[in-house]
Amino acid sequence: MDFDFATLSPQERYKLLGSSVTPRPIAWIASQSADGVRNLAPFSFFNAMGANPPLIAVGLITRPDGRLKDTAANILATGEFVVHLVSEALAPAMNLTCMDAPSEVDEIALAGLATLPSSAVAVPRLAEAPVAMECRLYQAIPAGSTTIVLGEVLHFHIQDALIDTEKLYVDTLGLDLVARMHGGGWYARQTDLFDMPRPLYKDWQAEHGGKSD
Ligand SMILES: Cc1cc2nc3c(=O)[nH]c(=O)nc-3n(C[C@H](O)[C@H](O)[C@H](O)COP(=O)(O)O)c2cc1C
């Protein structure tokens, strides 16, 4: 089946993209308004984009009435936010914070989550999150009904038990992260893995007798 996206509605395109580009990591973003109201919401149009500068990207879709979501408005107003990764233990709280609460509601308090002060930004971070990345807005790209936010990671917090500080080995499976899947409410665990070593061209050449020039 070939879909010409020009002939589809945004909702139809969203269905096809959102249910096939999976699993997606979840950025659970804490932000605050210029007058200090704390906000928390999950976003799965998200990934790490590079390490120099250390950038993450998030796609924030405007509301059906065209207004920015609180997270987008806060990031544009203050230039700061904290991206948390979501363990399975935190998944129910994460899900609670996707509700359409009014802007004046503190969603961190609503979800009953403890916070710790951040090191470089005014927005606090969630105490229970396995990873929290303090971000400064690097660039905001308006793209139709999406605001693509690039954030520069200033501080990276990880639970002490999940990192070998000598070698910087992360206990990735210990993070117990969940990822966004298809449809309205499906998620995935990282429990069905396989290992595939990365090939080198010189090995391929040796086996196939290929030439490099
Ligand atoms: C797992 C999950 C992933 C989501 N991903 C996105 C996303 O990538 N972009 C987006 O605009 N909304 C996404 N949403 C919806 C927002 O979380 C939701 O609109 C939320 O109310 C926005 O809150 P805010 O207005 O406080 O920023 C997602 C929701 C869930 C549960």
Q: How does this structure look, described?
A:
Helices cover about 20% and strands about 30% of the residues. The chain has a single domain, classed as Pnp Oxidase, Chain A (Roll). Strand 3 (about 45-50) and strand 4 form a beta hairpin. The strands form four sheets. A seven-stranded antiparallel beta sheet has the order 2-1-5-8-9-4-3. Strands 6-7 form a two-stranded antiparallel sheet. A two-stranded antiparallel ribbon has the order 10-11. The chain is α+β, with helices and mostly antiparallel strands. It binds flavin mononucleotide. Flavin mononucleotide binds near residues 43, 70, 100 and 180.
What's a quick, concise take on this entry?
The protein has 213 residues and is α+β, with helices and mostly antiparallel strands.
Fold topology:
Blueprint: H1 10-18, E1 27-32, E2 38-43, E3 46-51, E4 54-61, H2 70-78, E5 80-84, H3 91-96, H4 107-110, E6 115-116, E7 125-126, E8 131-143, E9 146-158, E10 163-164, E11 169-170, H5 172-175, E12 179-180, E13 187-188, H6 201-208
Antiparallel strand pairs: 1-2, 1-5, 3-4, 4-9, 5-8, 6-7, 8-9, 10-11, 12-13
List keywords for this structure.
213 residues, alpha+beta, 6 helices, globular, seven-stranded antiparallel beta sheet, binds flavin mononucleotide, Pnp Oxidase, Chain A, single chain, two-stranded antiparallel ribbon
For CATH, the homologous superfamily is named as Electron Transport, Fmn-binding Protein, Chain A
- Tell me, briefly, the overall form: globular
Tally of individual helices: 6
**What order do the strands of the largest sheet run in, or round the barrel if closed?**
2-1-5-8-9-4-3
Please describe the biggest sheet, giving its number of strands, its sense, and whether it closes into a barrel. Answer: 7 strands, antiparallel
The CATH C-level class name: Mainly Beta
CATH arch. level architecture: Roll
Run of helices and strands: HEEEEHEHHEEEEEEHEEH
